[in-house]
Amino acid sequence: MSIIRRLFQREPDPETITVHHEGVAYAVAVRRMAQARRFTLRVRAASRDAVLTMPPRARFSDATAFAERHGGWIAARLNRIPDALDFAPGAVVPLRGVAHDVVHRADRRGTVWIENGEIHVAGDQAFVARRVQDYLKREAKKDLEAATRRYAEALGVKVTRITMRDQSSRWGSCSSNGAINYSWRLILAPPFVLDYLAAHEVAHLREMNHSARFWRIVRNLCPGLEAAKAWLRANGAHLHRYGTG
Asked: A single Pfam family, by name (predicted)?
């Protein structure tokens, strides 16, 4: 590298900014985005952190000042995120929107089953959390596959693949080749929420955008979409408190 080029090359930005509010330090991840036109802040419930997005040519010192001015907002939002909850014996876990106690059954064979409104887990206690999470993922796949196939048939489109993931920033995604990804955490929500997300992603096989036409398709498939969207706005972040991902 030439000396001149080295002189004018910008040093890499730090990955985080530390913001202090009322004696507590909060780490804020920093991302330069080509499409960003201004500084924005958001809190990620899944990773329990804050992210500052900045324009590509903005000064890092200005980003730092912006984060510091919003220290109170960052602290308040992060402190609202409920504590993480593992799927251990005694935990209360929502399954299809209904609270279920996790019960360890060391005296029984098998894996996981539902009985009297409880999630029963057989075998060694060390494997309870993993077995509960695996069970929830299987149930999510079953419900989402059924809802997706139903809406795809109604719309006359082809779904090539359905995959369960643990996406922190979205509940589902759809590619133009017919592959759909969902967050397995939708099994924790009431069924009408899961149905809405399936209708939403299937509708993208007709419209790969969020135009007025797209929303008309979703509404025709799922008339109760507004209630589902409202539920997600109010409760969606809390679904990320459960399990380990």
From this structure: YgjP-like
Q: Give 241's DSSP letter.
A: G
Shared-domain flag, residues 110 and 188:
yes
174/51 Cα distance (integer angstroms): 25
d(CA 178, CA 174): 7
Q: Are residues 110 and 48 in the same domain?
A: no
Work out whether strand 98-105 and strand 92-95 pair parallel, antiparallel, or are unpaired: antiparallel
Q: Where are the beta strands (DSSP E) in 34-111?
A: 40-44, 49-54, 92-95, 98-105
Compute the distance between CA of residue 204 and CA of residue 27 in angstroms, rounded to an integer.
36
- Residue 167, pLDDT above cutoff 80: no
pLDDT for the residue 5? 54
Q: Is the pTM of this model over 0.85?
A: no
- Model confidence band, residue 245 (pLDDT cutoffs 50, 70, 90): low
Q: What is the pLDDT of residue 109?
A: 80
Question: Whole domain around residue 205: which residue ranges?
Answer: 92-241
Residue 226 maps to a domain: yes
Domain harbouring 233, CATH code: 3.30.2010.10
pLDDT value at residue 108 = 86
158/230 same-domain check = yes
Residue 86 domain-assigned (yes or no): no
